[in-house]
Amino acid sequence: MKRNLSCDVAVVGGGSAGIAAAIGAHDAGAKVLLLERNPYFGGQATHSQVHAYCGFCTNGDDWKQVVKGVGQRVLDKLHSMGRFDSFTYSPTGNLYVPQDPEYTKLALDELVEESGVDYLLCCQVVQADTEGGRIRRLTCADDAGLFTVEAEVYVDASGEANLSAMAGAPVEFHCDQSGCLVFRMGNVRHGMDYSPARIKAAVEQAIADGMTGFSASYGTVCRAQDTDDYTVNIISMQIPGLDAATQTKYEMEGRRQVHLYAKAFRRYLPGFENAYLIYSGPRMGYRESRRIAGEYQLCREDVKTSRKYPDTGIARGGWGAELHLGSEDVVFGEERGAKYFDIPLPCLRPKGMKNLWCGGRIISADLIAASSIRVMATGFATGQAAGVAAALSTGRGDYDTAAIRAELERQGALI
User: Fold this and answer.
1) Is 109 helix (H, G, I), strand (E, B) or coil?
2) Which residues on adjacent β-strands are paired with residue 138?
3) Taking the model in full, what pTM does it have?
4) Cα distance between residue 405 and residue 394, in whole Å
5) Structure confidence by residue, pLDDT tens digits, 13-58
């Protein structure tokens, strides 16, 4: 039996941007279908064990919150579960929200169920049929076979711009910034020095004693909430493609390095003497891959000068330009402090496409800007804007920026 599904707005990807896009579109009056290829929502927060929602607020003593809307609803849900009270300073001195992937999975399940959005997990989009810059339908696959999804407007929140690429939208592939396979270790002593400098010293001592095969010496170690477990973010590999052969190579290399670092930490990092490896991944975390070529490209000057777009701004960016280039120490290229910049609506719109909007780290941006907007809280903000834009636009390509901004404000977003 053929399966054919229809809706007003189809959202591809159930990470931060996709969750926000789906709820934003629904609250703007659209019938929405959210498609996620994994068996749970959350994207890299849950699938790549990135235990930090960064970008909800600016940094420094004078910080202010710059992302609310659907992102705030996620924080409220985590608070109701006893998993969020306030923003926390990271080992690098930036404010973030610690999150436990298992609680986040449940929080996002509940939020989506309560929202009225239709959704499918374990669903992979494999083809987009496009005519004249307009996506006509998607072909999806699950374990039962193939089915189609037809919508008036689509949102790409896939993280890799998969839908945009399939649809023939202009995309660019980038791998300047390295990916990382995060891992978690248990039975770690709390209260020891786990600063990036101390971690670097431990890795350098391991190398001096003959251990080889490390990809980086700079990294961070953060305590998992209410446990003696710590997550380690140190593996650094530039991943030159999205094909299965390339991903196979780097996923396997990442796992080899996980065990290497765990061994080195037990020997050379005080507090880890009796620690054991709990798990890694399950997937490598990508800081960048494809980005769309949009109607406007967010640029370094936008970030550096905290530029505002009073007529077209649909989200705020408050995270510093955090560059992870190869095995070098992380570089904050453009510190934000307590300032923020606006993200204008045309960054979410691929050139030449009439019924496609994008949210998350795939929006149109140069390297410096992309290293700022890629964080997940900013993904909530751009995703919600993409969803609202999709709900209020038409398949012909028409949209009203003022109406989109007004609806975002009605939904509690900060613009």
Assistant:
1) helix
2) 128, 149
3) 0.96
4) 16
5) 999 999 999 999 999 999 999 999 999 999 999 999 898 999 999 9
